[in-house]
Amino acid sequence: MKKKLAMILEWIRPAGIVLVYFLAEYLGTDAISKFHILGPMTVMVMSGSVALESLILGEAASEKIGYRPNRAYQVQSGLNNLATALTALLVFVLDWGRYADAAVTSSMLLFFVLSAANHLATGIRDHNFKPVNLMRPLMTLLLLGLLLPPMLQALQ
């Protein structure tokens, strides 16, 4: 069951981001209001799902990516992602402004860029050619392409 849920999360993330993007386009009236929806909500989807995966699905999540399970590290990483997702929720609900939107989004993007580099390195170094592991860098590039232009526009 956990293996199946771990694989379902791989599809929930992009589906959630597509939904958030359309909400931002539909409900946003200008660059700042669109990014206020797009940035923090994407952080909630991405960091929240990674937290769920790390904290609840542990070994199944490691196996899916091709990593050896390390429960202590997974819990610590999961709590960090949960903290990021909850911060994004506060930024969104309390409407702390475009700079807070950009800060929490930047923090998440930096994490995923560094994580993608790690996935790429393990793919090369350890011959970890599992599709989910190799998709991480590509998905990170797509996430950067989706979020950086509206973030920069909102900050002008």
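Second entry:
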Amino acid sequence: MSVKFAKYYNVTNLVKKMIKDGKLDCYSDCMDNLSGVYICSDTKDFWVARINKDLNDEYDEEEVVYLIERNKIDNWDVIEKVGETFNKETPRQYTKIDMHNFINETSERMLFEAVLMIDDFNGLENWDNYQCDSLEDAIDNLADIYGIEEFKVAM
């Protein structure tokens, strides 16, 4: 099964598993404030969305608000991380066709783990953020037209 374009996947349980397995550092420090972690595949990037509880868009503590932080990670960085981490042969040329073929032929788990490891290594940076009044509003904001799928992982 390949990752669906423009659809967010709830990878919160994968983050917990990777923390347990010692694969993530920054995420382990902030899990108490995270309500969820989501990944979406786009044409040039993977998007990571982290929903933080009780944090406003000025990064001040505020009860009963939720902050969505989004970070984008270049597809080629993900491909290189998959190759390096899982010893998978990567494309020799950097063309869109090679990139999309590799992503379509790679397991969701490998792709998601690579995205999370890059995000973690970069210190959970964000490209933008958006404040919501409830967790439901934050999830609806991510789901938009395409919805959210639960990514199942054995704990």
